[in-house]
Amino acid sequence: MQKILSVPLSIIYYLLFLCIILVFHPIQWICFNLFGYKAHKRSVDLLNFFLVANTYLLGTRYRIEYPENLLQNVPLIIAANHQSMYDITTIGWFMRKIHPKFVSKIELSKGIPSISYNLNHGGSVVIDRKDPKQALSAIASLGKYIETNNRSAVIFPEGTRSRTGEPRRFAENGLKILCKYAPSAYMAPVTIHNSWKMTRWGIFPLGLGNELIVTIHPPFPVKEQSFAETFERTERAVIEGLALHSTSIFVS
């Protein structure tokens, strides 16, 4: 029954999604080319607001669990598990104050209004997973960028997203490069719950009535331990967070 009900709602959702990204593409262009980074950042924040708001049509709810000491104005490395493309807009909107920049696959950098433009001009990097040399070079440039500008790099160390919510083993290379080129950064493990349910039947129809929970674990400086310890601590926090939910400080 839910799947049948989801068909008309998903059609409306995708029509609104298309309108949003078409409208914000020229807005981003104007903001970036005429007014610079700050204006472009505000346009992207507004884009993410509407993309998140559009999911309310599907009965989606959000719960964001923040630590008391979530840092701002320092380089941050956000290492999160990956369950669906909705992870990106969720992080982009609810963590907008820390200027998240993404490590994204190259396929998203072309042909998608608003989304491709932001990936190419907003500080994120795109990687070709078939070309390790290019991928590591791009991630290194992102590490330097957040180190210089006190912004945040978002990386999904699982690589391929989990379609069932079950965590995949983290890959080390991307995190290692970010830690190397952003030595003053803090690592903030992030656990994402239930976003896989949005695409439980694929991209159409979409799942209904889901609560997406994002748990941001307390950040810690990467320079105070070896990379092996940083990596193990990060992966453990993310995986344990899938089973253990702390009390939410901020709910939207």
In short:
With 252 residues, the chain is α/β, with parallel strands linked by helices. It has helices at 2-35, 37-55, 86-94, 115-121, 132-149, 173-181, 227-243, and strands at residues 61-65, 76-80, 100-105, 125-127, 152-155, 186-193, 211-216, 220-221, 250-251. Strands 1, 2, 3, 4, 5, 6, 7, 8 and 9 form a nine-stranded mixed β-sheet that branches.
Q: What does this protein look like?
A:
The chain has 252 residues and is α/β, with parallel strands linked by helices. The protein has one domain (2-251): 3-Layer(aba) Sandwich (Glycerol-3-phosphate (1)-acyltransferase), CATH 3.40.1130. The protein has helices at residues 2-35, 37-55, 86-94, 115-121, 132-149, 173-181, 227-243; strands at 61-65, 76-80, 100-105, 125-127, 152-155, 186-193, 211-216, 220-221, 250-251. Strands 1, 2, 3, 4, 5, 6, 7, 8 and 9 form a nine-stranded mixed sheet that branches. Helix 5 (132-149) packs parallel to helix 6 (173-181). Mean pLDDT is 91; it is low at 245-252.
